[in-house]
Every structure is written in C-alpha cells, then in structure tokens.
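Cross-check.
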Amino acid sequence: MNLEFLIESYTRSPRILEIADKIVLPGYKKISCTKLAGSFSSFLFSSLYRNPHLQGFNHIIVLEDAEEAAYFHNDIEQLINPVDLFYFPSSFKTNKNIR
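Predicted model, tokenized:
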C-alpha cells in the first residue's frame, strides 16, 4: 500500500465526506476532532484539503503547542505539498519557553 492510495482511501471515507459537507455549509463553524492518534490528524486534514468541495477554502488549524504544530506542519508538507502553508508559533511567553 502506497501513500497516495492511503490518502485517497481517506478522501473517499464517508466520515471525511460528512466533515467536508459540514464545512461547506454557510455560517460560523467550529469543528473539533479529539483523541486522534499519531499522524491521523495530518491524514484527516490532507483528505479534507483534497476534497473538491473545499477547493479555494482557507483553513486555520490551532494546535496545543509549538512542537505539535511543527510536527503537523512537517506532515502536511510531505502529504500534500501545498503552495501556501504557514506556521505561526505563539509569541506568548510562558515559563516553559523563557531561556
């Protein structure tokens, strides 16, 4: 099984199509996906990104911390090779990131 086949399988999944249908509906949306293991969130997003109904949409993904965001950013770069993909780490200083 190669990567392209795996992503296409997710893209055609009924659950992915259901999420895409909810995104297309007009109005404010907050979609939260919890308890996703490993890189599944990256596969989920790449499947939504490839959905033809969502072409031309802008997506904002908010993650818990800079490390998780960096891993997600790297996964998305490898999975879909997007033209415009930006990573904005928090500028908020906490005791954890002050050196």
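Residues 3-80 form one domain. Residues 66-80 form the longest helix (15 residues). Passed to J.P. for a second look.
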